[in-house]
Amino acid sequence: MTAATPFEGKVACVTGASAGLGRAIAEALVGAGAKVVAVARRRSDWCDGTNAVALSADLSDPGRAKGVARAVSDPFGPPDILVNAAGVNTREAADEVTLEGWTLTQNLNLAMPFFLAQALVPGMRDRGWGRIVNFASLQSLRAFPGGIAYGASKGGIVQLTRAMAEAWSRHGITANALAPGFFPTELTGPVFDDPERAARNAAQTCIGRNGRLPDIVGPALFLCSAASDYVTGQVLPVDGGFTAK
After folding, report:
1. How many angstroms separate the CA atoms of 47 and 132, rounded?
2. Alpha carbons 216 and 144: distance in angstroms, whole number
3. DSSP for the chain?
4. I want to staple 65 with a disulfide (CB 3.0 to 4.6 A). Which of 97, 115, 123, 163 is the partner?
5. Mean pLDDT, to the nearest integer, of 180-186?
6. Rounded Cα gap, residues 245 and 243, in angstroms
7. Cβ of 35: how many Cβ atoms within 10 Å?
8. How confident is the model at residue 45 (pLDDT cuts 50, 70, 90)?
9. Is residue 148 within 8 Å of 177, Cβ to Cβ?
C-alpha cells in the first residue's frame, strides 16, 4: 500500500451506492485504490467496470443475503470491506404505522446489514482482516416525529454494531457505525424541501450548517482503513455537533 492508494488490493461492497451518502463513500473508496461493488435497488450509473461494478439487488429481503453475498464476490473476489448504507424511512406517524412499513424498515435497515455481514465474514476471517461499517442515525439517540419505525431500526443498529464487534473483532474484523446528521439525500428530501426546517436543523449544529456529501468521506475512509485497527464497536456521529447541543 502507498499513501496515494491506501486501499490498493482491497475489495469493498457498498450498499445504497446509487446515490447520496452511499455513492459518496463508494466513489471515495475507488479514488483511494479499492475495487468496489456498488449495490442498490437501481443500478449505479457512475461505475466504470474496471474498479467499480454495479449490482442491482433487492435488499429488503434478508432471505436473499447469501445470494447477494455470492454475487458481490464474483467481480473482484470476497470483499474485505462492507459498508451498509442502504436504508428507508417510511415517515409513518406512530398511530399510522403499518405492518408492511414496519417490516420493510426493519428488514432493510437492520436485518439485511446483519445477514449480509454474516455471509461475508467467513472470507474476512480467512484473511484475518475486515471492516464492517453500518449506518446509524440521529434517530439512534433521539425521537423525531414520524420516525418510530426508522428510529427503532437505527437504535437496533447501535447494538448490532456492538454485538458484531464482540463476535468478530478477535478475528481482525472491526465493526463500527456512522451516525450522519442532516445531509441532502433522497432519504432526507422531505426535510430539505422545507427551507425553514432545514434552517432550524442547521442552527442546531455547533458548526452552523447542514452536512454536505464530502463531509461523510473522511470518517468513512477512516473506519474502512487500517488507521482504525484498534477502533471497534463504536458509533461516530457525523452531525456537525447536532447531538452536542
Report:
1. 22
2. 22
3. --SS-TTTT-EEEEESTTSHHHHHHHHHHHHTT-EEEEEESS--TT--SSSEEEEE--TT-GGGHHHHHHHHHTTTSS-SEEEE---------GGG--HHHHHHHHIIIIIHHHHHHHHHHHHHHHHT-EEEEEE--GGGTS--TT-HHHHHHHHHHHHHHHHHHHHHGGGTEEEEEEEE-S--SSTTHHHHTSHHHHHHHHHHSSSSS---GGGGHHHHHHHHSGGGTT--S-EEEESTTGGG-
4. 115
5. 91
6. 6
7. 21
8. confident
9. no
**Mean pLDDT value across the chain:** 95
Pull the grid cell for residue 229: 485497527
Tell which CATH architecture fits domain 11-244. Answer: 3-Layer(aba) Sandwich (3.40)
| Active site positions, annotated | 150
Phi, psi of 14 (to 5 degrees): -120, 120
**What residues does each domain of the chain span?**
11-244
Q: Exposed, middle or buried, 209 (CB in 10 Å: 0-12/13-18/19+)?
A: middle
Question: What nine digits make up the cell of 101?
Answer: 412499513
8 Å CB contact between 114 and 125 = no
Q: Is the pTM for the entire model greater than 0.85?
A: yes
Is pLDDT at 151 greater than 90 in this prediction? yes
- pLDDT of residue 2 exceeding 50, the answer is no
Distance from C-alpha of 146 to C-alpha of 198, rounded to nearest angstrom? 16
Phi and psi angles of residue 39, each rounded to the nearest 5 degrees, phi first:
-105, 135
